Amino acid sequence: KDAEFQEHEKILSPDFLSVAQIIEILAEDVDGVQQKLEKFLNFKNLQTCLKEASLLDYYVSGFLWAKGMDFSVIQYSKFMTLLDMLLHNLRTLHMSLEDSIKWLGEVMAEIGPSHKNEKWNIFDVKQANAIVDYLKISLFQHYKLYEFLFFSVREEIVIGTESGFLQLVVDMKRGSSSLAPPKERDTPPPSIIFCVCVICLLSVSHCDQRSDIIEDPS
User: Fold this and answer.
1) Chain mean position to CA 35
2) Which residue in 17, 158, 192, 205 could disulfide with 188, CB within 3.0 to 4.6 Å?
3) Sign of the C-alpha dihedral computed for residues 128, 124, 70 and 80 taken in this order
4) Residue 36: is it exposed, middle or buried by C-beta count within 10 angstroms (0-12/13-18/19+)?
5) For residue 21, what are the domain limits?
6) What mean pLDDT comes out for the span 53-80?
7) What is the DSSP string of 40-103?
8) Radius of gyration (Cα) for the chain, nearest Å?
9) 36-45, 105-114, 151-160 — which is least confidently predicted?
10) How many CB atoms lie within 10 A of CB 30?
11) How many CB atoms lie within 10 A of CB 33?
C-alpha cells in the first residue's frame, strides 16, 4: 500500500509551481498573472525571443483557464505540471503527437476519476474531460507549430521558404477554425497568439529580404 502510494505520488512530479507560487499568482489579475509567471520562469527576452513569448503565453493561458474552472491549489499544481510535462516530453524526448496523447491518457488514468482508489482522484469526470478538451485546442491541435518552435534552427525561422511559410499559414488556418474561447476565459486560446507571433515573424523576414533585394544596386 505504502509503496503503491509513493509510486502514485511520483505522477506529475516535481511540481512545476510551488503551492506558495500558485497562491501568489491567484491573487493577481490577468496582467499580474503574466508578470508573476514571467518572473517565476525567469524569462528575460520576451521582446526579442519568440520561444519565450510563446511559452509564457502557453502557461499564462493555461493558468487563466484553470482559474475559470475554480480548481483547488492541488488541482492547479497538477494541471500546470501536466502542461509543463507535455512540453517537456516534446522538447526533450521528441515525443510524437500520438505518443503525447497516449501519455496523457495514462496520466489522466492515474489522477482522474477512473483510478481504482478514489482517495487518489485529483479531478472528477467533468474536470478531467474539460482538461482533455482544453489540451486539444491549446496544444494538440497545433502540435506541429510547437515542434517548429523547438526544433527549427534560427536560420529556418528567420529566413524560411515561400512554400514553408504558405504551408505554415494553411496549417494555422485549419487549426484555428474551431477555436472558440471557453466561456470561463476572456482571453484567446494560446494557439491563436502563438500563430500570430509566428506569422508576424515570418512576414517580417520576407519583407526584410525584399528590401535587401530592392536596395542592392547590383
Assistant:
1) 17
2) 192
3) negative
4) buried
5) 2-215
6) 95
7) HTT---TTT-HHHHHHHHHHHHHHHHHHHTT--HHHHHHHHHHHHHHHHHHHHH---HHHHHHH
8) 19
9) 151-160
10) 14
11) 20
Phi, psi at residue 199, to the nearest 5°?
A: -60, -45
How many CB atoms neighbour CB 164 within 10 A? 14
| Residue type (1 letter), 170 | V
Residue where the block lists cell 505518443: 99
Hunting for cell 492547479 — which residue is that?
76
Tally of structural domains, the chain: 1
Report the chain's mean pLDDT, rounded to a whole number.
Answer: 75
- Please classify residue 37 by burial: count the beta carbons closer than 10 Å to its beta carbon, then call 0-12 exposed, 13-18 middle and 19+ buried: buried
Residue in 83, 101, 97, 2 with CA at minimum distance from that of residue 41: 83
Enter the C-alpha cell of residue 105. 491518457
Quick one: cell of 54? 510563446
Query: What's the pLDDT score for residue 118?
Result: 55
Pull the grid cell for residue 185. Answer: 476565459
Which three cell numbers mark 107? 496520466
Question: Which DSSP state fits 50?
Answer: H
Q: How confident is the model at residue 194 (pLDDT cuts 50, 70, 90)?
A: low
pLDDT classification of 169: cutoffs 50, 70, 90: very low
pTM of the model: 0.70
Instruction: Check if the beta carbon of residue 195 is closer than 8 Å to that of residue 142.
Output: yes
